[in-house]
Amino acid sequence: MVNRKELDPDKSPSARFGQLLRTLRDERGWTQDELAERMGCSGTHISAVETGRRPPTPQFARSADRVFGTGDRFERMSRAVRYTALLEGFPEYVAHEARAAEIRLYEVGVVPGLLQTREYAATLEADAVRREAITPEQADERVELVVRRQATLACIPSPLIFAVLDEGCIRRPMGDPAIMEAQFDRLLAFAERPNTVLQVAPFSMGARRPFSLPITVLTMPDRSLMSYAESAQRGHFERETAFVLPILTAYHQLQAEALSQAASVAMIEQLRKGTP
Q1: Among residues 42, 64, 82, which one ends one of the domains?
Q2: Buried (b) or exposed (e) across 85-107, using 16+ Cβ within 10 A?
């Protein structure tokens, strides 16, 4: 085809969405106008989405899933496209997190998103707005994403969630005392769930702490492994099991060195009461 724009699916979530749309359309031998007729839009709109010039709306994504019989695949991918305030790699990670059978996470400095209260998350993002790192609209977007991700905790069957928090996560004040008290309550409630394990990696671990940056390992229903790690500027989502296995091994070592859940809960309860 003349002047057919080549797509790089690794460039952005929009490019991945557009490539899949084009691939499935080509497999069926449909033109853009023929697909547009089935989806109730224009051929120009199809072209713009396929080439990444126009982001897919939720309605467009649901229509694509209906036409191609792809379940909610396009809808999940469209959510990744909309999360423009997020680090590279994170939207793709979020889509897989929602389907994971087991989630293992380690966080440094702040309580991880899956365990944050809305107020804690809002305080964290408000400071990013103050520093002009993000816009107020992007801050709202991030907070709403935290809330949506936490729906994972309520799904049935629930994933197993292992959370190891560096001691700095619970000692770093965030907002006023009421916000921290509510956050401590959230952590304690998390530890009581039948599908969770909460541990604190104390400062006394010193060099025995295997990670210096946040890390998450996902075990999918088919037992495949994925990982996500990030720095201040970018994130990296890894889908090759061979590269994830060493991270999983290090995570198990981290759990062995961290405080037990009972000792971790006791530390959080002491901080909640204002005891050093």
Answers
A1: 82
A2: bbbebbbbbbbbbbebebbbbbb
